[in-house]
Amino acid sequence: MKPKNIILVTITATIILLACCSQQPVFGQKFEVGIFGGTSYYMGDLNPEPIDQFANARIPALGVFGRYNMNEHLSLKLGFNYGSIEGNDADSEYDVLGNGDIYHFETDIAEAAIQLDINFLPFVAGDPTSLYTPYVFGGISGFYFDPVPKRERGGTIDVITDDSHWHVDEFDENNNPPSYSNFNLGINFGMGMKFHVTNNITGGLEWGLRYTGTDYLDEVSMQGNPKNNDWYSFAGISFTIKFKDRSGAVCPPNFL
User: Fold this and answer.
1) Which of 43, 200, 224, 230 is 20 to 30 A from 251, comparing alpha carbons?
2) DSSP structure string for 112-161
């Protein structure tokens, strides 16, 4: 399914669920706090095969988050994630440096994100009768990045300290390279699985994509495809502890 279709399905399902559940008393207002561990990877000009990038992802990522379960089907999550991404033009169609040298980049990603989870099955954290549920999510993020460009020549990789990796058309009238903000926003969406562990612990698997508002995660724009912005992703496993619990009513049990 294309990203635009995923976003459309997520928004439509959210509207329907909210319309239903807003007519009911809130179910067991439960708060959870959790930790996330997994990997992060990049999709952009230097990554012609995103699926291979995901399969070979090896850079560790960590995160912490809080989750508020509005009812059996909807959860609101606020998280902070930290990871790194990297790439090079060895296998891409672009020769960034224009002389046969291999261009590399790497950058840390520090992210704050808020998302809405939509559970396909009724799920109550800590309830042994709620064994698992798949879910989709959508949200927004703000993140910080600071790419380090590198050059590989003769098997040696060095940091590029001049402006040689910029396209000639990107310099302004004063011969300055392009400037961009190290802070940016992203649209988050993805899918996952929540599962019961104990009466106080819930496990989860999640794969999330971030469509960003920048083409400079890799510090490559006109040397690649300036029409497409860069993406990054977090994928991994999480565990939460139930923090607070109140009782109440539920959305109609046969709604989904």
Assistant:
1) 200
2) EEEEEEEESS---TT-TT--EEEEEEEEEEEEEE--EEEEEETTEEEE--
